[in-house]
Description:
Layout: H1 4-7, E1 8-11, H2 15-20, E2 25-30, H3 36-47, E3 51-59, E4 63-66, E5 69-72, E6 76-83, H4 90-93
Antiparallel strand pairs: 1-2, 2-6, 3-6, 4-5
Function: One of the early assembly proteins it binds 23S rRNA. One of the proteins that surrounds the polypeptide exit tunnel on the outside of the ribosome. Forms the main docking site for trigger factor binding to the ribosome.
GO molecular function: rRNA binding; structural constituent of ribosome
Family: Belongs to the universal ribosomal protein uL23 family.
Amino acid sequence: xxxxxxxxxxxxxxxxxxxxxxxxxxxxxxxxxxxxxxxxxxxxxxxxxxxxxxxxxxxxxxxxxxxxxxxxxxxxxxxxxxxxxxxxxxxxxxx
Length: 95
């Protein structure tokens, strides 16, 4: 079983993710093997908030060119976590 800090890799800070923060939804890059239950427990454990819903999606890596050769970035998993009204995550507040 993965540790809570291993499940949540990093927060995703984009224009779109900042827009859904007003709906109390936060976006994270998570471990590929983590399921919704693991993600919910990890967010509640790390940030001390109440999670209502977790939506996950697998993001395909993009094809990148390096000189003459083609490569590919890694596939990864994204989770959008909905929190209870009144709960916030502090790392996003200063942005």
